[in-house]
Recover the amino acids of this structure.
C-alpha cells in the first residue's frame, strides 16, 4: 500500500470508463458450529456509477452488511468478484480511499473530537500538524468546528454521528460505504443528517453505498435502490429514484416510491 | 453553541467554596484525632502511649540528625526499584497473556496462587536467598506488586472493544499502531489502578521485609525503636510514613489520574 496515495489531497477523478463499484455474481457462505454452512449471499450483481448514491434496502438477515463488508475488502466472496474503479478488489491497493462508516459512531472515548477524526489519518505517515489541519477542516465540513476539543461523552448523539462522518470524510474518500449509519439517531436528528450528507455529497462528489432497513431513508438519499430478499440474500429488484432533491418525505411522488419499495420488501 | 460545552465543563469543576469546605473538614478531623490521642496519653506512661508533644520532639530530633531522611530515602529507593521491576515485567506479561488466549488459559491458575502467598513468606525466602541486603526488600516488593499488575493489565486487555479493532482494520492500520492506539489506552486505567494498589502494598510489605532482613531503612528503625522501647520514635516513624503516603496520593497520584482519565464521565471518575 503506498503511503503517498493514501495521504494525497483530493483524489484525481479516476477514469470514468469504469463504474466506481462492480459486484458480479457474488455468493458467500459462512461456516457454522453445526457444520452446515450458512448461505448468506446468492449470486449478487450490481453496479454503482461514479458519484452516485446507491441504497441497499432489506430486512435484517438478508446479508446486506456482509455485502458491504465484501465491497470494502474485509470479507472475501466465495464466488464471483468485486471491482473498485475497474480493478479487481484482490489487486486494489488504495483502500484508504474507501471509507467505512459504521452503525455505531465508534468514537474512541479517550480522544477529543478532533483527535478522533485524526485517527483515520494515523494509519499512514502524515505529519501531526497536517493531520490536525485536515481534521479541523473535516469538522468544519460537518459544522462542528466549535467542538474539536470536546470528548465524546460531552457530545449529543447527533454530534457524535457528525464526528464519525468527519472521520470517514477526512481521507477524502472516492467511495463512502455506510452500514445503517444513522439508525441509532432519533427521527429529527436523522433527517438533519440526511440533509448534511447530501450537502457534502454535492460538494465532494464521492460515490456512496449505504445499507438501510428504513425505506424512507433509502428514497430520500439514493439515486437508485437495490431491494434484497433474505435467506440467502439476493437482489430482488433495483429501483432508480428519478426525483429531484431535496426530497420531502411527505411529498406525493416520494410517498409513491416509499409504498412501491415497501411492497417489495 | 460553544456555551453549552463551556457550561458542561464548568459544571464539572468543583466550586471554590466546596473545595474550601473540604479542606476545613479534613483539618477538623486531624485536630479531633490528635486531641483524642493527647487526652488518652495523659494518664498513661510514656513508653505505652507518648503524647503528641513528645512525638513531635522525637520527630524533630530524627529530622535534625538526618536519620529520618536517609532511612526514608533508603526505603523509598527499595520500594521504587521493586515496583519499577514489577511494572517492567508485569505490563508486557499481562498484555501477552491477555492477547494470547491459549497462553492465558494455561497460566491463569498461577496468579491467584501468587496473590495468596503471604509477604512474610516471600520475606523469609528472600533472607535465605539474599541475606541481609537491599535485594531482600526489593524482592519482596517485586513479588507482591507483580501479580497485582499482571492481573489488572490482563483484565484490561479483555475490555478492548472489538468494534475499535474493526474500525482500525477498515483504515488498514498496521498491527503495531493498533496496539499503541487502541490496546494501550484501553489498558492504561486498569494498569494505573493495579500499579496504585501495588505501590501501596509494596510500601507495607517493604516494612515487613526490612524488620526481618535489613540493617537500614524505616522498617529496620521501627523495630530497633520498638526493641529499645523508644515508643515516641515508633510513633514518629509511623506518622512520617502516613504523611508521606497521603502526600504521594494527593500530590502525585490523584492529580495524575485526573489528568490522564479526564475523558471519563464525572460519575465514573469520582
Amino acid at each position: 500500500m503506498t503511503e503517498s496515495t493514501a495521504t494525497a489531497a483530493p483524489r484525481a477523478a479516476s477514469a470514468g470508463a469504469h463504474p466506481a463499484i462492480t459486484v458480479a455474481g457474488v455468493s458467500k457462505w459462512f461456516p457454522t458450529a453445526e457444520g452446515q454452512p450458512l448461505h448468506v449471499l446468492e449470486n449478487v450483481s450490481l453496479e454503482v456509477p461514479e458519484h452516485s448514491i446507491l441504497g441497499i434496502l432489506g430486512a435484517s438477515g438478508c446479508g446486506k452488511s456482509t455485502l458491504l463488508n465484501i465491497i470494502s475488502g474485509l470479507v472475501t466472496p466465495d464466488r464471483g468478484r468485486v471491482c473498485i474503479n475497474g480493478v479487481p478488489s484482490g489487486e486494489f491497493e488504495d483502500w484508504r480511499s474507501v471509507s467505512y462508516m459504521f452503525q455505531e459512531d465508534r468514537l474512541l472515548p479517550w480522544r477529543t473530537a478532533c483527535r478522533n477524526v485524526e485517527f483515520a489519518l494515523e494509519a499512514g505517515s502524515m505529519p501531526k500538524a497536517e493531520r490536525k489541519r485536515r481534521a479541523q477542516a473535516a469538522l468544519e465540513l460537518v459544522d462542528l468546528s466549535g467542538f474539536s476539543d470536546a470528548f465524546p461523552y460531552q457530545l449529543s448523539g447527533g454530534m457524535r454521528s457528525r464526528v464519525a462522518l468527519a472521520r470517514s470524510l477526512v481521507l477524502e474518500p472516492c467511495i463512502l460505504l455506510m452500514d445503517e449509519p444513522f439508525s441509532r439517531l432519533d427521527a429529527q436528528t436523522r433527517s438533519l443528517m440526511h440533509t448534511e450528507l447530501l450537502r457534502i455529497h454535492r460538494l465532494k462528489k464521492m460515490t456512496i453505498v449505504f445499507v438501510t432497513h428504513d425505506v424512507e431513508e433509502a428514497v430520500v438519499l439514493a439515486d437508485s435502490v437495490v431491494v434484497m430478499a433474505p435467506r440467502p440474500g439476493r437482489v430482488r429488484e433495483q429501483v432508480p429514484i428519478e426525483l429531484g432533491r431535496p426530497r420531502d418525505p411527505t411529498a406525493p411522488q416520494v410517498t409513491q416510491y416509499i409504498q412501491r419499495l415497501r411492497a417489495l420488501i | 453553541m460553544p456555551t453549552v460545552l463551556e457550561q458542561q465543563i464548568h459544571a464539572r469543576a468543583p466550586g471554590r467554596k466546596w473545595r474550601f469546605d473540604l479542606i476545613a473538614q479534613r483539618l477538623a478531623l486531624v485536630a479531633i484525632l490528635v486531641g483524642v490521642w493527647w487526652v488518652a496519653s495523659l494518664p498513661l506512661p510514656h513508653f505505652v502511649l507518648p503524647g503528641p508533644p513528645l512525638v513531635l520532639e522525637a520527630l524533630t530530633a530524627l529530622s535534625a540528625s538526618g536519620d529520618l531522611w536517609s532511612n526514608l530515602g533508603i526505603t523509598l529507593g527499595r520500594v521504587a526499584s521493586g515496583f519499577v521491576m514489577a511494572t517492567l515485567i508485569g505490563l508486557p506479561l499481562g498484555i501477552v497473556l491477555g492477547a494470547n488466549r491459549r497462553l492465558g488459559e494455561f497460566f491463569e491458575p498461577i496468579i491467584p496462587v501468587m496473590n495468596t502467598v503471604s509477604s512474610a513468606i516471600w520475606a523469609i525466602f528472600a533472607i535465605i536467598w539474599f541475606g541481609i541486603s537491599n535485594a531482600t526488600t526489593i524482592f519482596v516488593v517485586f513479588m507482591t506488586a507483580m501479580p497485582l499488575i499482571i492481573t489488572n493489565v490482563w483484565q484490561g486487555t479483555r475490555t478492548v472493544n472489538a468494534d475499535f479493532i474493526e474500525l482500525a482494520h477498515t483504515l488498514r492500520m498496521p498491527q503495531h499502531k493498533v496496539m499503541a492506539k487502541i490496546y494501550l489506552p484501553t489498558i492504561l486505567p486498569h494498569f494505573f489502578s493495579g500499579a496504585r494498589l501495588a505501590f501501596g502494598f509494596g510500601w507495607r510489605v517493604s516494612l515487613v521485609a526490612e524488620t526481618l532482613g535489613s540493617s537500614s531503612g524505616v522498617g529496620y528503625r521501627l523495630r530497633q525503636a520498638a526493641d529499645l522501647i523508644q515508643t515516641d520514635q515508633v510513633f514518629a516513624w509511623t506518622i512520617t510514613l502516613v504523611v508521606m503516603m497521603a502526600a504521594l496520593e494527593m500530590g502525585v497520584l490523584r492529580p495524575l489520574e485526573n489528568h490522564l482519565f479526564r475523558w471519563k464521565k464525572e460519575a465514573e471518575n469520582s
Remarks:
- The CA atoms of residues 26 and 80 of chain A lie 4 Å apart.
- The domain at 19-105+169-264 of chain A is CATH 3.40.50.300 (Rossmann fold).
- The interface with chain B takes residues 1, 72, 74, 95-96, 99-100, 102, 104, 106, 108-112, 119-120, 122-123, 146-147, 150-154 of chain A (CB under 8 Å).
